[in-house]
Specification:
580 residues; alpha+beta; eight-stranded mixed beta sheet; 18 helices
């Protein structure tokens, strides 16, 4: 056994969760090592939808513009189309991913960022390169085998797959970000709910110039109603754009009880031809792989000094595009807490808030993604496509919707309604942004939970109440225009106040914690020329918001508290940091 390698945090896995954890930790100055059993980063597109909250995290970590430069922009994502093939009949579209005019306005009001389509094989290099540049030590072809932990740290045994030998890495904390078959989560004994292997799917990555069928209705997703797409009858195949308009990925179903079919090039090309509907376009198959649809989530994300993130603790289909987003947000939530515990600022009890805050989000994501699959059924029902029948009967049902009959009119209405209902999968803005945390790292202010005025899955509702993400508003500083979100983060707490809030500023200076201060108001460092912040902050000018390093409000007070601001802030920080 060779000499033990030492670090503060060992991360197993270099996917979105592991890479973003490494990036955040290195940005905060925390030594970390990433090991991955593979010889390379992701080589297929896999996860791709990147929502506004994730873009805010990437903005905070300083890589937003690199992602924007490589991603497909939002305006090319949003004509989700239902058709008989790309070259065949179109059945309808739903404006998606913030491209409906009203949704576009809601996106612009909610965040300084824009969602985009950033395939995983392009995202991982951005995250990993930045992490390594800032200090992460990365080891490819290094397989995690096991771990033991004690009161002071975790000892992991890993195997160098090139040399074949094993060695130990001693870390104060271990992050398992090793995917949907996580060995770290298994070894840590994390209790799981739900089930694995609900259904079978095949990914087929291919190259073809499909400009003539897609550029006029630009979208990330094209749903094709085609015979054999799902087991036992008529279903839908998915044609996903990887890069407009010549790189693509098809998702196709198979009978999980019978096992995946032989994924030959000929088989893959036959599926591509079926869904594209044009036998003359040149097609190059890049890769094919089988996977299973899962509905599983961890009930707790940690055991002692071992924490898990990403697919290791929430496993679900790609519906709603939530996978890599939730993974990156898990890592962002955990990293600042580890940093403050490691440097002695916080008590290890702070780490208990990771499960308390992220496990409910993971469970919601798993539930929402699986529900979205079932919400496709009404599209088939409108075409009488669920009952066993021949392909010819399906085509007849599709053709019948064009008849000038009362039955056809009802069918058209049912189809429109069914397609429109898919907004819950393709434009669930509230699922993306409405997280409200309850944990020991949040200090309640005694106000009643306002709930949500509209559907909390579809619509974002900003709030400054403790546990909510800080609302976005455009403010100015001299000639600069910036978001309120740009004043917080970067690994430290931030206290926001206004004119009359000097007592809060003095209180912040008197703490043993790094707290940035922001004063917003006429004649101050930051001004609110549109009045947007005044409408969103939900406290008077002299009130205060204490915002955590991850952008969530931890403490709120409605007035200047001139006589006891220091005591109030000190007590709040003690509770947040686990010292109380």
């Amino acid at each position: 056994m060779s000499t033990v390698v030492e670090t503060d945090v060992l991360i197993v896995g270099s996917g979105p969760a592991g890479a973003s954890a490494a990036l955040a930790l290195s940005t905060y100055g925390v030594p970390n090592i990433v090991v991955t059993r593979y010889a390379h980063l992701a080589d297929t597109p896999r996860a791709h939808i990147t929502n506004q909250r994730t873009m805010e995290v990437l903005r905070d970590l300083g890589v937003e513009q690199e992602v924007v430069a490589r991603a497909t922009p939002q305006h090319l994502m949003g004509n989700t189309t239902f058709c008989t093939s790309l070259a065949g009949e179109e059945l309808g579209r739903v404006r998606s991913w913030g491209n409906d005019p009203l949704a576009r306005a809601a996106h612009e009001l909610a965040s300084p960022t824009r969602m985009c389509d950033m395939p995983q094989h392009l995202m991982e290099p951005v995250l990993v390169d930045a992490a390594v540049a800032r200090g992460t030590r990365l080891r490819f072809e290094t397989e995690y085998l096991s771990h033991t932990q004690d009161a002071d740290g975790v000892t992991a045994t890993v195997r160098d797959r090139l040399r074949g030998d094993t060695y130990e890495i001693r870390a104060r904390y271990l992050i398992g970000a090793d995917g949907g078959r996580s060995k770290v989560a298994e070894d840590a004994g994390l209790p799981m709910g739900g089930r694995m292997g609900v259904a079978g799917s095949i990914n087929i990555v291919f190259e073809a110039d499909l400009t003539r069928y897609t550029a006029h209705r630009p979208s990330t997703l094209y749903w094709v109603l085609a015979p054999g797409a799902t087991v036992g009858g008529i279903g839908a195949g998915l044609v996903r754009c990887v890069r407009p308009w010549n790189e693509w990925l098809i998702v196709w179903g198979y009978d999980v009880t019978a096992g995946a079919p032989d994924l030959t090039t000929e088989y893959a090309e036959s599926i591509v031809r079926k869904l594209v509907g044009d036998d003359d376009i040149p097609v190059t198959i890049t890769s094919s792989s089988a996977w299973t649809v899962n509905e599983r989530y961890a009930e707790t994300y940690a055991n002692g000094r071992v924490f898990c993130a990403g697919d290791a603790v929430h496993r679900h289909p790609p519906s709603n595009g939530l996978g890599s987003n939730t993974s990156i947000q898990d890592a962002h939530n955990l990293a600042w807490k580890l940093k403050l515990v490691l440097d002695g600022t916080a008590h290890p009890r702070l780490l208990d808030s990771y499960t308390a805050e992220r496990a409910p989000v993971g469970r919601q994501v798993v539930t929402r993604a699986n529900r979205s699959i079932h919400e496709t059924a009404p599209v088939f029902e409108a075409l009488d496509g669920l009952a066993p029948q021949t392909p010819e009967q399906l085509w007849a049902n599709i053709a019948a919707r064009k008849d000038a009959t009362e039955a056809a009119e009802q069918q058209r209405a049912a189809l429109r309604e069914a397609i429109a209902f898919k907004v819950y999968e393709f434009d669930a803005h509230g699922v993306d942004l409405n997280q409200r945390y309850t944990s020991g790292a949040i200090v309640p202010d005694g106000t009643p939970d306002p709930g949500f005025a509209r559907d909390p899955e579809l619509y974002h509702q900003p709030s400054s109440r403790p546990g909510a993400r800080l609302p976005h508003a455009w403010i100015t500083s001299g000639s600069r225009t910036l978001s309120t979100l740009d004043t917080v983060g970067r690994g430290r707490f931030t206290l926001l106040t206004g004119i009359g809030g000097q007592a809060w500023l003095r209180a912040a200076e008197q703490q043993n914690v790094d707290i940035a201060t922001v004063v917003i108001g006429p004649g101050q460092e930051y001004e609110d020329p549109y009045g947007d912040w005044a409408r969103l902050r939900e406290v008077p000018d002299a009130g205060a918001l204490l915002v955590r390093p991850d952008g969530f409000v931890a403490f709120r007070h409605p007035d200047a508290a001139r006589t006891n601001a220091r005591d109030l802030l000190t007590d709040a920080l003690r509770r947040i940091l686990g010292h109380a």
